[in-house]
Design goal:
By secondary structure, the chain is an alpha+beta fold. It has five helices and four strands, in the order αααβαβαββ. The chain has helices at residues 5-15, 27-35, 50-58, 83-96, 118-138, and strands at residues 67-73, 106-110, 146-150, 168-173. The chain has a four-stranded mixed sheet. Helix 5 (118-138) links the parallel strand 2 (106-110) and strand 3. Helix 2 (27-35) packs across helix 4 (83-96) and helix 4 crosses helix 5. It is globular and about 40 Å long.
Length: 176
């Protein structure tokens, strides 16, 4: 069986756990990002390429909560961290251990796509959030600074509820 280029591209999207090829953020960049911010509960922060942030702002899709979206993605029906996610989270853990960020606490939000029942997706999203929080804790982040919550399929990142980009964990500053 020969695969055409469009079939290969579709397979790459369907089986990829990382839907965006953003460069790895270094811990010092993460520290500088947060250390210089005056964060408030109503201020949204977009971390991504300049084009992505402008596009979100134009579409009025800017996040409503202050935070950093590391875009930790997952394979379908999985809460396992792949090597790319581990590398990204390792840098995030290094940043969180920096003294300049010692007063910040984070909500680790797990999300799913629309595949599966509401209850199943709620459980899966919680497992994803806990997987990320456990990795950060194992890398020296104090557990009291992390709150893992699952949001199921209730907050898709893109309009297509089945898009793999919706299978993710986002970290946000706890503002309460």
């Amino acid at each position: 069986m020969r695969w055409g280029s469009s079939a290969l591209a579709l397979a790459a999207v369907l089986f990829s756990t990382h839907v965006y090829a953003d460069p790895l953020q270094k811990s010092e960049d993460i520290v500088k990002f947060f250390a210089g911010q005056n964060l408030g509960a109503s201020r949204g922060i977009c971390v991504g390429t300049e084009e992505e942030c402008k596009s979100k702002a134009q579409k009025n899709e800017a996040p409503q909560k202050a935070g950093l979206d590391m875009m930790i993605n997952f394979a379908l029906d999985s809460a396992q961290l792949d090597q790319t996610a581990r590398s990204e989270l390792d840098e995030f853990a290094k940043a969180l251990k920096d003294n300049r960020l010692s007063t910040f606490s984070f909500v680790v939000e797990g999300h799913t796509d629309a595949t599966g029942t509401d209850r199943y997706n709620q459980d899966l999203s919680q497992r994803r959030a806990q997987s990320v929080a456990a990795f950060l804790e194992a890398n020296g982040v104090v557990s009291a600074r992390l709150e893992a919550i699952g949001l199921g399929k209730s907050h898709p990142r893109v309009s297509n509820p089945y898009d793999p980009v919706n299978r993710r964990v986002e970290m946000r500053i706890r503002t309460e």
